[in-house]
Known about the structure:
single chain, 12 strands, 5-stranded mixed beta sheet
Amino acid sequence: xxxxxxxxxxxxxxxxxxxxxxxxxxxxxxxxxxxxxxxxxxxxxxxxxxxxxxxxxxxxxxxxxxxxxxxxxxxxxxxxxxxxxxxxxxxxxxxxxxxxxxxxxxxxxxxxxxxxxxxxxxxxxxxxxxxxxxxxxxxxxxxxxxxxxxxxxxxxxxxxxxxxxxxxxxxxxxxxxxxxxxxxxxxxxxxxxxxxxxxxxxxxxxxxxxxxxxxxxxxxxxxxxxxxxxxxxxxxxxxxxxxxxxxxxxxxxxxxxxxxxxxxxxxxxxxxxxxxxxxxxxxxxxxxxxxxxxxxxxxxxxxxxxxxxxxxxxxxxxxxxxxxxxxxxxxxxxxxxxxxxxxxxxxxxxxxxxxxxxxxxxxxxxxxxxxxxxxxxxxxxxxxxxxxxxxxxxxxxxxxxxxxxxxxxxxxxxxxxxxxxxxxxxxxxxxxxxxxxxxxxxxxxxxxxxxxxxxxxxxxxxxxxxxxxxxxxxxxxx
Length: 478
C-alpha cells in the first residue's frame, strides 16, 4: 500500500517543479494547465447537453460520442494533475491519468477510423441544402395539392348535400319508402317511412318482427332470392297494418360494398293503398253504373212505349220523349256532381223548374228543410216533377199570370217518411180527366212503386195537388 501511495504521490524527499523551475515558467504552466483542465471539463458538459437535446442518434453514434467525452474528461483530469504537480509531488497520479487519456485517445481514434466510411456517406452541406430545398418544394406542392383537394372535397360535399336535399324534397310527401337491410334482412337504413311507422320502430328488426306473417314471409323470400341470384325482384303485397289495409309495390336490389361483396339488399316500396282503394271504389261504381244503366234503359224503354202509345204523330212523340229524356238527364247531372251519393231535394226541384227560374220566390214558392235523396229517389221524383211542371205549363197554374204553385215538404208524424206536396192555385178551373194520360200513369204507378212509397194525385177545382210519401230508405242519413 505504501509502495502504491509513494508511486502515485511521490515521497517527501521528492522535489516539486516549483522548486526546480523558475517562477515565470511555473506561472505559465499553472495558467495553461488550469485553462486546459477547465475547458476539457466544460466541453463534455456541452456535448452531453447537445446529445440529450437532439435525441436522434443511433447506437454507433452514441458509442463514439461517449468515447469522445471520456477522452476529453481524461485529458482534463491529466492537466488538472499537472497543475497540482507544480507544487505537490503527484507525478505518479499524473502519469496514470495521462495513460488513461492515451488509452481513450487510441480507442477513440480506432473507432473513428472504423466509422469513417459511414461518416463520409453523410451528405455535405450543399447536398443537405439542396435536399432541404427539394423537400420545401415538395412540401409547397403538397400544400397546394392539399388545398386543391380540400376545395374539391368541399365542392363534392356541397354537391352531395344538394343531391341529398333534392332527394329528400323529391320523396317528401310522396308514397315512396326507401330502405336497406343487411344479410340477415335487418333494417340498417330507412327514409320516408309510411304513416304509422317510424325509423326507430324498424332499425335493427326484420320484416317478420314488424309486419304480419302472411305479408312478411313472401317479402323475405323475395329478398333472399335477390341475394342468391344477384338480380332484382318485384312484388306487390297487401296486408292490414294498424287497423288499415295497406298495399305496396316493392322493387328489391342486391346491395354491395366498394369491393363488390354482397352486404344485403336495398329496396323501394311504393304505397299504393290510396290507388288500390280508388280502384276498388271505381270497380264498385262501375258495377253500380252498370246496374243503374240497365234500370235507366228499362225506364227509358217504358217511357218510349207509353209516349208512343199516347201521341198521334211522330213529331209530338219526339217532342214529349225528348223532354222526358232531358228531365232524366238533369237528374243524372245532379247525381254525377255528388259522386252518385244522392242529391239535394231543393236543388232537384229548382232544376226541374229552371225554365221558370224568374218566378221562384213569387208565383212559385219552395218551402222545407233541405234533405238528401238517394239516387233512385232523385231519378223518380225528378220524373214526377217534370210531368207536373209540363201539365202546369199546358193546363194548370203556370199557364196563366194569376196562377201559383207551392211546393213544400216536411217530416210526417211517422218519422220514417217524408211528405212532399205539389199544390197549384189561381189557375184555370180543373176538371177531372176522363182518361189517364202518360204523365198521370207515370206519377201514380211508376214513381210510387219505384220509391216503395205512396203517391196521391187529385184534381180539386182550385188546382192540381200531388202528395208523394218518400220512405226513409230513400233518404241519405246525415
